[in-house]
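Throughout this review, each integer encodes one residue's backbone shape. One record appears below.

===
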Amino acid sequence: MKHNLLIVEDDPNLGQILNDYLNLKGFKATLCRNGEEGFKAYLSGRFDMCILDIMMPKKDGFSLAADIREHDNQMPIIFLTAKSMKEDAIKGFKIGADDYVTKPFSMEELLLRIKAILKRSNNESKAENISNSYQIGSILFEVDKQRLLVGEKETKLTTKEAQLLEFFCRHMGQVVPRNIALKNVWGDDSYFNARSMDVYIAKLRKHLKIDEKVQLITVHREGFKLFVL
């Protein structure tokens, strides 16, 4: 079954090249030229991933991603941008981006990133995890449903949040080296992925505060450790 990709890119040449290339590689791609058009297409279709340019007329990529996140916390999102500013990458990851690609980039590299993210996302949806749920103190973490439960209170997680927390749960009480976590969840330990992980660690800590006994700490020069007091 073909994966449906939403491409929102205002550069007509790059947009068409992306659209044609990804269709040629076995995807079903839908191309939109601005953020407003992209959001209308998102609402009317069913997509497995969104590939968004950042600098666009009418609605920029950050605003579009935020709107998509209000409807679907788990939708994989890749940002494309001509900028290489670290602030843009951090802002993108805070919104919940799964990856961030700076122009110019090779189509082959983008294809590999798309496949890696879809593979991880599909594995989550099929619940191909060592355990479908973990009890962390008073918190029940349902991996396949990507949510935390404490009594009747429910907290939904993004795909990346769930992947990272599931990895820590598999190593509960152990110090997980930073580069190992990066390679297992993001695929490599590049600078941008490292900054992305920092953002998601902060998000997880906020979610886990619902039980003060649950600790996700940074072990200086070693990595991270999830445990219950």
Q: What stands out?
A: The chain has two domains: 4-125, 133-228. The chain has a mean pLDDT of 87. Residues 107-125 form the longest helix (19 residues).
